[in-house]
């Protein structure tokens, strides 16, 4: 399927300040930007923060093209949100909302572009360790993040494929021809991913344990013809 | 070599609008002990269902499946440690963006130390000649490289049995040959389904499945011959097929000049 190849700011090997920064600091940056998106009320401040985030991203050496690829999938959605908010609440509010969402995306991209996925998963598993006392499995938290990183570009790619198919059949204006196949593809993908993880024994509960029977099973009839 | 035993196993599924469940696999008993076993048969004949029983991806409606005495339902975790599974489409199996990360993901459960995990992942990739491609996006790899990577990710945890569901279906001739050679060099017990009859001829034992039933079980040459005969018997002659589909064409047209 076309379009499944792009990933939101894939890891870029490097030795920049951001690559060397501790993981907790980068986590903090993402969380901070997420919280700031609720607190910033002026679109000019949001634009300034976005400029700083973009500068940080470029400082990592990941490049403008990769930055564009990171935000490109959400641009149509942001355009729709922006237009709706402009109609409902006016230009400054629409600009603030759109810019705040972009701040969050670029901040998350800084984290994923400068941190190898395995290190990210180790970090998530460490963060989730305190929940172990309540019966949670930290590895499952890490696996959830891994699946999320894999699934977002897949769903974006599925939408792109379905849109192309709808166009080819002259159905690009039919919402049912766009939404329903994406929904079905996504459910099928979820089932496939579940099967693949299960087959590899990933995400299974570590406490499950059963002893084999003490004697070998006997008396098997063969179906040899 | 592991012993996989299926005892009076059947798989049925409920289908909307049908009073009786549909039988995917009729009751069968098997004992799989050979090193290389193949399953051949038409699309929808039950090959994948049979393979998926072997590592607990499909639960039997009746009967039991055991791998070295471990029950695939009650001891699924132990079974999956022993039985690796490779899917037809490697993209549905590879979870991480790059090969290195995917192999490391496989190792997360068994190797806690990050540095050791990385070392083992590199060794596995190197074994399959994939180290130069380790950091490339899985989408940038060719079909053959992806299939090899899927195989490497499963073999990284060193299972005793390797189950492959039509591993060569999406591959071109060159990559099929590469896969064939790779499988021939493995020490694991290999059980695979395939439409590639040349690959089937390499195996020690081949089962022919038709409409949810094992209709032949024996040596590869005899099994392939049986399957060919089965296919030939199931295809109507070209003229007869056209007559059946378009009966009016068989009648002479009165014509008018």
Mean pLDDT of chain A: 80
Strand order, main sheet of chain B: write it out: 6-7-8-3-9-10
SSE ordering of chain B: EEEHEEHEHHHEHEHEEHHH
Largest sheet of chain B: 6 strands, mixed
* CATH level-four homologous superfamily name of the domain at 4-95 and 159-234 in chain B: P-loop containing nucleotide triphosphate hydrolases
Name the poorly predicted regions of chain A: 214-225
The ordered H/E elements of chain A are HHHHHHHHH
Q: In which range does the helix fraction of chain A lie? A: 55-70%
Broad CATH class of the domain at 4-95 and 159-234 in chain B: Alpha Beta
**Outline of chain B:** globular
Strand content of chain B: 15-25%
Q: Helical segment tally of chain B? A: 10
Largest interface: A-B, 45 and 56 residues
The largest β sheet of chain A comes out as:
none
Q: So what's the overall shape of chain A?
A: globular
Q: What is the CA-atom radius of gyration of chain B, in angstroms?
A: 22 Å
- Our count of helices of chain A gives 9
Q: What is the terminal-to-terminal distance of chain B?
A: 76 Å
Structural class of chain B: alpha/beta
Question: Your description of this structure?
Answer:
Chain A contains nine helices and no strands. By secondary structure, chain A is an all-alpha fold. In chain A, helix 3 runs parallel beside helix 6 (91-114) and helix 7 crosses helix 8 (138-168). In chain B, strands 6-7-8-3-9-10 form a six-stranded mixed β-sheet, with helices on both faces. Chain B has a four-stranded antiparallel β-sheet with strand order 2-1-4-5, with helices on one face. Chain B starts with a strand and ends in a 7-residue tail after the last helix. In chain B, helix 3 packs across helix 4 (114-127) and helix 3 runs parallel beside helix 5 (143-155). Chain B has 257 residues and is of the alpha/beta class. Chain B has a domain at 4-95 and 159-234: P-loop containing nucleotide triphosphate hydrolases (Rossmann fold, 3-Layer(aba) Sandwich). Helices cover 37% and strands 24% of the residues of chain B. At the A-B interface, helix 7, helix 8 and helix 9 of A face strand 1, strand 2, strand 5, helix 2 and helix 3 of B.
């Amino acid at each position: 399927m076309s379009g499944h190849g792009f990933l939101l700011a894939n890891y870029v090997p490097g030795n920049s300040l951001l690559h060397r920064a501790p993981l907790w600091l980068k986590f903090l940056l993402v969380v901070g930007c997420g919280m700031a998106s609720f607190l910033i009320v002026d679109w000019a401040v949001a634009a300034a923060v976005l400029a700083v985030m973009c500068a940080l991203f470029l400082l990592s050496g990941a490049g403008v093209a990769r930055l564009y690829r990171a935000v490109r999938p959400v641009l149509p959605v942001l355009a729709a949100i922006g237009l709706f908010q402009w109609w409902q609440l006016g230009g400054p509010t629409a600009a603030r909302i759109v810019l705040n969402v972009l701040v969050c995306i670029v901040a998350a991209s800084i984290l994923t572009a400068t941190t190898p996925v395995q290190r990210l998963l180790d970090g998530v598993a460490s963060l989730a360790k305190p929940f172990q006392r309540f019966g949670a499995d930290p590895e499952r938290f890490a696996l959830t993040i891994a699946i999320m990183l894999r699934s977002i570009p897949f769903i974006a790619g599925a939408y792109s494929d379905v849109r192309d198919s709808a166009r080819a059949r002259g159905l690009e204006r039919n919402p049912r021809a766009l939404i329903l196949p994406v929904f079905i593809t996504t459910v099928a993908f979820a089932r496939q991913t579940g099967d693949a993880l299960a087959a590899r024994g990933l995400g299974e509960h570590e406490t499950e344990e059963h002893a084999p029977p003490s004697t070998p099973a006997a008396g098997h009839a063969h179906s040899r013809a | 070599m592991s012993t996989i035993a299926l005892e009076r196993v059947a798989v049925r599924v409920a289908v909307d609008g049908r009073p009786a469940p549909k039988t995917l696999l009729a009751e069968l008993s098997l004992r799989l002990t050979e090193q290389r076993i193949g399953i051949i048969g038409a699309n929808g004949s039950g090959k994948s269902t049979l393979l998926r029983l072997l590592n607990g991806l499909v639960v039997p409606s009746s009967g039991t499946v055991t791998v070295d005495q471990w029950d695939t339902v009650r001891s699924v975790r132990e079974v999956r440690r022993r039985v690796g599974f490779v899917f037809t489409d490697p993209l549905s199996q590879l979870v991480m963006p790059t090969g290195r990360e995917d192999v490391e993901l496989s190792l997360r459960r068994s190797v806690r130390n990050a540095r050791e995990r990385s070392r083992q992942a590199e060794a596995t990739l190197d074994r399959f000649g994939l180290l130069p491609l380790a950091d490339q996006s899985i989408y940038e790899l060719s079909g053959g490289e992806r299939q090899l990577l899927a195989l490497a990710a499963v073999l990284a945890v060193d299972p005793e049995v390797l189950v492959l569901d039509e591993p060569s279906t999406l591959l071109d001739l060159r990559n099929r040959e590469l896969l064939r050679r790779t499988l021939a060099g493995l020490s694991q017990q290999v059980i695979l389904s395939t439409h590639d009859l040349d690959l089937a001829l390499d195996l020690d034992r081949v089962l022919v499945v038709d409409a949810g039933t094992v209709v032949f079980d024996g040596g590869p040459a005899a099994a392939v011959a049986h399957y060919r005969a089965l296919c030939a018997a199931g295809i109507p002659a070209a003229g007869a097929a056209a007559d059946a589909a378009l009966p009016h064409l068989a009648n002479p047209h009165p014509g008018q000049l």
